[in-house]
């Protein structure tokens, strides 16, 4: 997944993460009656993750012993970026990986990989995905960006789609090649400060840090209006892995559902963030944090596929229900 995520100073450090364990309340959850490792096809599972706020439930599941309660030994591999997820899943280097839905759906529709979504991950909320401009910029609205350059972490992906949807709501059209310029999230602050770009589509914790560091202003929150509560990312496996290991995948799904539920308590997320990123506890508390859905809802995820179709990121309609893993 080309997921941006949330983190020069503190921003660069935040990308240098370690997948660690620890934190408050280390008590393992009681095994589920249908779990506990009974009959699992595979007990060691290699999971791709990224050091971003979006993956806090995965960390919580490890810290709270939720995977262990299901008989799973989860080994995490930290990805440098979402682009690594698809080839590593395809090669078998990863069994399951975190990634954004736009990347997963696009790869599946193009036949690059046969995927199944096994757990929801992250849904936008106010201030998690915003468009920012320098504090002294004359730009006040999205319409003012019509002929301007906007930094995004990846073109033709979720970032540009969110901006284009916001533009349409303001009767403004943006062109993938003319308006958007690719910059890694840690470089967006410098690009705004130097005037290299007119605006940037950023996510947490970059939005908070860029605002604090250079006084950049938010001109539009892309987590509102037509993209309010928008599904951003989840966890996927190849259909081959799911078919060969249905009980293992179901166990992973149950553990993640419990972890996502725990993440509804902001305090649990804030406590976990410093344990697998370099974001200090003092900064974690000030971040905007999104929503962590506990179930896979095809109707909700279909919003992503339908938007992709509308904005040219899919050539044909995609029925998301066919990509969702449901434990029998």
From TrEMBL:
Annotated localization: Periplasm
Domain Solute-binding protein family 3/N-terminal as annotated: residue spans: 44-265
UniProt superkingdom: Bacteria
Subcellular location, principal: periplasm
Coiled coil: none
Keywords associated with the record: Signal
Protein name according to UniProt: ABC transporter substrate-binding protein
Record family assignment: Belongs to the bacterial solute-binding protein SsuA/TauA family.
InterPro entries linked to this entry: Solute-binding_3/MltF_N (IPR001638)
PANTHER family: ALIPHATIC SULFONATES-BINDING PROTEIN-RELATED, TAURINE-BINDING PERIPLASMIC PROTEIN
Annotated signal peptide: 1-24
Keyword Nuclease: no
């Amino acid at each position: 997944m080309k997921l941006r995520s949330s983190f020069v100073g503190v921003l660069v450090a935040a990308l240098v993460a370690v997948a660690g364990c620890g934190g408050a309340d280390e008590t393992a959850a009681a095994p589920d009656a249908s779990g506990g490792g009974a009959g699992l096809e595979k007990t060691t599972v290699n999971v791709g993750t990224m050091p971003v706020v979006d993956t806090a439930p995965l960390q919580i599941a490890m810290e709270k012993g939720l995977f262990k309660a299901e008989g799973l030994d989860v080994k995490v591999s930290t990805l440098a970026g979402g682009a690594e997820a698809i080839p590593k899943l395809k090669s078998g280097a990863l069994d399951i990986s975190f990634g954004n839905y736009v990347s997963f759906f696009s790869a599946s529709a193009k036949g690059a990989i046969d995927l199944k979504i096994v757990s929801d991950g992250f849904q936008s909320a106010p201030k998690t995905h915003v468009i920012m401009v320098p504090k002294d910029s004359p730009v006040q609205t999205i319409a003012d960006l019509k002929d301007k350059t906007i930094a995004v972490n990846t073109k033709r992906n979720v970032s540009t789609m969110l901006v284009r949807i916001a533009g349409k709501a303001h009767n403004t059209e943006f062109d993938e090649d003319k308006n958007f310029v690719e910059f890694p999230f840690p470089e967006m602050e410098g690009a705004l400060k130097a005037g290299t770009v007119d605006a940037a589509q950023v996510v947490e914790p970059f939005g908070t840090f860029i605002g604090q560091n250079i006084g950049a202003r938010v001109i539009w929150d892309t987590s509102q209006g037509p993209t309010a509560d928008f599904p951003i990312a989840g966890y996927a496996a190849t259909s081959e892995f799911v078919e060969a290991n249905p009980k293992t995948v179901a166990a992973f799904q149950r553990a993640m559902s419990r972890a996502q539920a725990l993440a509804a308590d902001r305090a649990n997320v804030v406590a976990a963030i410093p344990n697998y990123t370099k974001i200090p506890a003092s900064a974690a508390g000030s971040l905007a944090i999104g929503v962590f859905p506990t179930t896979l809802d095809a109707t909700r995820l279909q919003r992503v596929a339908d938007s992709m179709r509308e904005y040219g990121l899919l050539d044909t309609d995609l029925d998301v229900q066919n990509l969702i893993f449901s434990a029998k």
